[in-house]
Amino acid sequence: MTQEKVNLDSEDYSGEDFEDDDMEAFENASAEEKTLPKFVVEGFWGERLDKVLASLMPDVSRARLQKMIESGAVKVNGVVVEKIRAKTTEGDEIELLEAPRMEEALAFEPQEDVEFEVVYEDDAIIVVNKPAGLVVHPGAGNPDGTLMNGLLWRYPELKEVPRAGIVHRLDRDTTGLMVVARTLAAQTNLVRQLQERSVKREYWAITMGSAAPDFVVDVPIGRDPRSRIRFKGFPGSTGVRAKPARTRVRTVDWSSADGIPISWVACRLDTGRTHQIRVHLTGEDLPLIGDQLYRGRAPGIAVKMENLLDFHRQALHASRLGLVHPVTGEEMQWFREPPEDMIQLMDDLGFGPWDRPVTVFERV
C-alpha cells in the first residue's frame, strides 16, 4: 500500500518497527498545505477496509477510523463505503473525506516511567539513547511501555507538541541516538533538517559476508507484497511501488566465525525509509547478525551464526548523531558506543577499539 497525496508519509510511518523514519508534521502544516489522505491498496487482497486503513495510518486509533467509515467519511474507488468490514483488493483507491483527528494520536496515555538514557537536553531538544526492545511509538500490539510514554512521563510539556516531539524513529531492537523536540518550533526546524538530509546519522552494523571497503546502495524501497511486515528493494522502480532510498557504507573491519566472513560496517543514511539499512545490506548479501526478519539468501546459515554468536536481535546501533541546533544554529554532534550485548559480540569477533570509526562519520 502506498500513499499518493498526503503530507504525513504513511509508508514511512507504518508498522511497529522502524529503522529510522523521517516524519513530516502533518498537524503543523497550514490549511493550504494539508491534503486529505488518499491511498492506493498494494499488496493486500480481501482485507477489511478498517484493517487496511489501520495499517496505512497506525498513528490513528482503529476505533476512530471505524467511526470515520461508518459516518461516510471514506470513499473506495470514488464511492462512499460505510461498512467497516467491506473488502478491499489490489489497486483500490481509498480517499478520506475529512482529516483524522490527529490529537487522538498525540495524547497517548498512560504516561509511564520507562527506562532510557538522556544524553543531552536543553529548552529546545532532547537527545536520547534508546535501548534494545523499546518501541518508540504506541501502535498495534504496543499501546504502552513505549519511548513516547516515557517521554511524556519525564517531560509532561511534550503533551503540547505533536507526537511528543518525536521526529524520527528506530526499530524496536535497534539501539542508539534519537533527537526529540521540546517545542513546536524546534520540531518544525528538525523536520526541515531531516527533509533536507542535513541531519547526520551514523549506524554501526555487524553483518554476515565480506563487505567492500566503501560502497553506496541506491535502491528504492517499498513494502514487500508478500509480507505486510517486510520491506524490499525495487531497483529502478519509484513512485507507487517504492520510494528513493540511499545508504552510504564504509567498512571498519573484517572478521570471521566458523569460517563465515563477518563485517563491521558504518552506514550513513541519505534517506530515512522503513528498515532501510537492513533491506539495503541484505540486498548486498550482507544480512545483519541476529536479524529475525531479513536473513538473506541463506537463512540456515544466518540462524547458525545467530546461535553460534548468541546474538538474537539485529546487530544495529545508531552510534552518532549530528544536527544544527534549532535555536542557536550551533552544529552539534553526539556519540554513544553500543550497549553491552553488542560490545560483547564485537569483542568475540575481535573488533575494536571504539575510537577507530570516529573519522568515518565525516568521510562516509
TrEMBL record:
Signal peptide: none annotated. The active site is at D171. SMART domains: S4. It comes from the Bacteria. PANTHER family: MITOCHONDRIAL RNA PSEUDOURIDINE SYNTHASE, RIBOSOMAL LARGE SUBUNIT PSEUDOURIDINE SYNTHASE D. Responsible for synthesis of pseudouridine from uracil. This is Pseudouridine synthase. The lineage of its organism: Bacteria, Pseudomonadati, Pseudomonadota, Betaproteobacteria, Burkholderiales.
